[in-house]
Amino acid sequence: MKVDLFDFDLPRDNIAQHPAYPRDSARMLDLSDDIIVKDSIVSQLVDILHAGDLLICNDTKVIPTRLTGKRGLATVEITLHKAINDNSWQAFAKPAKKLRIGDKFTINDKFHAIITDKLPTGEVIVEFNLSADKLRHALWQYAIMPLPPYIKRTKGGDMVEEDKDRQDYQTMFAKTEGAVAAPTAGLHFTDQMQQDLIAKGINFQAITLHVGAGSFLPIKVDNTDNHIMHHEWGKITKSQAKRINDTHAKGGRIIAIGTTSLRLLETAANILDDDNRIDDSDIIAPFSGDTDIFIIPGYKFKAVDMLLTNFHLPKSTLFMLICAFSGMERMQQAYKHAINAGYRFYSFGDCCLLRVKTRERKDNNDKPV
């Protein structure tokens, strides 16, 4: 498909620089009906979902990976985005062109790295003098949160971190360290909201997908056939898969909190076969490993009935995904409404609740899904 089909104009004022407070006061565009477009707020999700539904959250935890250091007398910024081993990472660098293999990148006298390789993509491989837990501890101490580039945090031209960024850019479900970007739909949830949903019989199941920086990378080709999707590591255990399958078998809906949860669920659905199927009603299998699933219109969803997701960038893989999920015309109209109504976009922005375009079963209230 032509990438330009997924383009739209977004005024800069619609890009959120800070989240809503409290988190569940963010606006939510309710598209759970096939025709109606309804303006709502996140806390009203409890009034829309049904008892027996299962919300799938991503429990990945974002680690600080943006570092400022010196190469000789020159200041260099690097953003780690993919771990290679205990002490080496693939990273974006600024300025990347001036770096050479063998250069030393110094954060302080106890923490430094060597540039061991330069990739054709312009990225670098850095090898630190610390590894494993010691490296992770140093990152929490000296690095800042890897906020996406459309969230501006600069002072005197340098990247900085505001006091609340570490709290704001972490979901309440965060548990398993490894992400370099937040699963942003989860940022809207609060303890009280979770309690209200559970009290109604709407439950939660955590799975893990370590979100990579590829979520924010622009597509640089004209046709989706030529796009190489980034890899992210994820895991769904046997017990987690069983709970999801049991919910489906009982007529409950599977609701993904964010595109990261959806991508992992659909990955696990695509590997389901007779060898790992326990019951004929199963929709996913346990999974552990890398996924590079690329979902565009024409994809047939197997596991997810509804999706809560933020508003995405034009010509992004995530906007393509939601066009596949609820229909391209539907999403183009919804985004036009959201822009005109002043919805806040991207990571710290508002969200929308989507319903899958087609499904051949009924939910637990006997309504077609």
Description:
Helix content is 20%, strand content 26%. It contains 8 helices and 19 strands. A 9-stranded mixed β-sheet has the order 2-1-19-18-16-3-14-15-17. A 6-stranded antiparallel β-sheet has the order 5-6-7-10-9-8, covered by helices on one side. The radius of gyration is 21 Å and the shape is globular.
Tell me briefly what this model is:
This protein is of the alpha/beta class and 369 residues long. The chain has helices at 45-48, 132-142, 165-168, 191-199, 238-249, 259-270, 317-326, 328-340, and strands at residues 27-31, 38-41, 54-58, 60-62, 66-71, 74-83, 88-94, 104-108, 111-118, 124-128, 154-155, 158-159, 176-179, 203-209, 232-236, 254-257, 287-291, 306-310, 351-355.
How would you write the strand order of the largest sheet?
2-1-19-18-16-3-14-15-17
What percent strand?
25-35%
Q: Sketch the major β-sheet.
A: 9 strands, mixed
The averaged pLDDT comes out at 94
Order of helices and strands: EEHEEEEEEEEHEEHEHEEHEHEEHHE
Structure summary, number of beta strands: 19
Low-pLDDT residue spans: none
Distance between the termini: 27 Å
- Report the principal-axis shape: globular
- What structural class results from the helix and strand content? alpha/beta
The count of helical stretches stands at: 8
Q: What is the rounded Rg?
A: 21 Å
The helix fraction, in percent, is 10-25%
